[in-house]
Amino acid sequence: MRDRWMLAGGRWSGGTGGTTFTVRDPATGDPVGEVPVCAPGDVEAAVAAAARAAPGWAATAAADRGAALHAAARAVEERADELAALVTAEMGKPAADARGGVEAGAGTLRQYAELGPLHGGRTLQGGRAAADFMVREPRGVVVVITPWNDPVAIACGLVGAAAVTGNTVVHKPSERTPHTGALLAELLAGALPDGVLNLVSGDGATGEALAGHPGVDVVAHVGSTRAGRRVAVSAARTGAKALLENGGADPLIVDEGVDPSWAAAQAATGCFANAGQICTSVERVYVHEAVAGPFLDALAARARGLRMGPGSDPSTELGPLVDERHRARVHEQVEKAVADGARVLAGGTIPGGPGSFYPATVLAGCADDMAVMAEETFGPVAPVRAVASFDEALEAARRSRYGLAATVLTGDLARAHRAWRALPVGTVKVNAVFGGAPGGAAEPRGASGAGFGFGPELLDEMTAVKVVHLLADPG
């Protein structure tokens, strides 16, 4: 069992909390380890350590902060196999996908290491006797609360952006992937001065205590909408800035005229990658009735053909869900949809044996008021509704309290342009469910959160603008 769960001011400990929780391998149900819940005093110590380190780190040259992030990226790359294995053991992600997330995290650290020293303000045109300019300054202590579905990449992005702009950080990883979070913190902190990165372990209550701490200036949270709202309320009480990427119910529109087999491959990737446990997974599908039949046949065939198994097996294409509690929630949505008239074309049943596996599931005949369409399922489920026109699909896709992302598959350029303008989401992808140029950033809308969570714009979120009017002659 690991005994280094709390980091404050460069000193590791097991925390002072008296309670623990067990993390289990979702493929086998076997325990990965016992993890302590940090006590309120541990939270106080971590925030205090970050506050003490803040002035010195803010005064550190931007180039030196960038160099520290490059060193952190090297440390992550050197232990990439170990980090990826922990991701697979704790949340079930297939090994290659887990390794890809670690590599993405190291790449993000390098991106911010280069962008940080270039991030600055601008001069203003004032009177000739004065100097007028805008500068960006670190906000202070940043709390980073990260999810379990991509624990390394997301943490590297938020911690990296906060640190390179001169902030200090207290990180609380998800209670479902605490071993991954602790090792990552060890690697990142080794490249930073004491107190710049601090760590606490715990559950939702620990996260809320951090978010509501009066010594915190920014709270960056990635996770469910319900948890994000609690974080936002806690931050509002102190005036801390909240950066939130919450849940989504991302639509996929399949237009008439597209190759239904190709469209089915795109839908399968969007719905089933990482067992549907991606923030921008496809959560609802609107397919034109002209191609609905062959599209559904091809999608169901792809779902049935996926090799389900433990993430440690290189041949696995569909790993387990993170735990049995989450699987029960996913299956409950599927069962309710079937009871309300949806038809199961593939999957839809809980397999026997150990682990929290759930098959890739395709549901036809879905309606927008079903929870499987209206809410975030976060599992390998493709709920499909046939529509009579592109306009009908677009109007249905627009109706959601979420606003994270959307995908449109169409060969009609005019419709593509109309769609990206009409969809009230942060990211619109045309003819590809995933992908995009490096550095692209988006702002989620509605129940999906607020603020940039990645890209160069995240550096703006982590800093505050100060306007200076400097008159050289006092009189």
Task: Give a quick set of tags describing it.
475 residues, alpha/beta, Aldehyde Dehydrogenase, Chain A, domain 1, Aldehyde Dehydrogenase, Chain A, domain 2, 2 domains, 7-stranded mixed sheet, 6-stranded mixed sheet, 15 helices, 22 strands, 22% strand, globular, Aldehyde dehydrogenase, oxidoreductase, Ald_DH/histidinol_DH
Count of DSSP helices?
A: 15
Instruction: Count every beta strand, where a strand is a DSSP E run of 2 or more residues.
Output: 22
Count of domain modules = 2
Radius of gyration (Å): 23 Å
> What is the overall pLDDT average?
96
Description:
The structure is a single chain. The protein has 475 residues and is α/β, with parallel strands linked by helices. It has 2 domains: 6-246 and 448-468, Aldehyde Dehydrogenase, Chain A, domain 1 (3-Layer(aba) Sandwich); 250-430, Aldehyde Dehydrogenase, Chain A, domain 2 (3-Layer(aba) Sandwich). It has 15 helices and 22 strands. The strands form 6 sheets. A 7-stranded mixed β-sheet has the order 14-15-16-13-12-18-19, sandwiched between helices. α12 links the parallel β15 (361-364) and β16 (381-387). α4 (95-115) packs parallel to α5. The longest helix is centred in the first third of the chain and has 21 residues, at 95-115. The relative contact order is 0.14. Residues 16-468 form the Aldehyde dehydrogenase domain. This is Aldehyde dehydrogenase. It holds the Pfam family Aldedh.
Gist?
The chain is an alpha/beta fold and 475 residues long. The chain contains 15 helices and 22 strands. This is Aldehyde dehydrogenase.
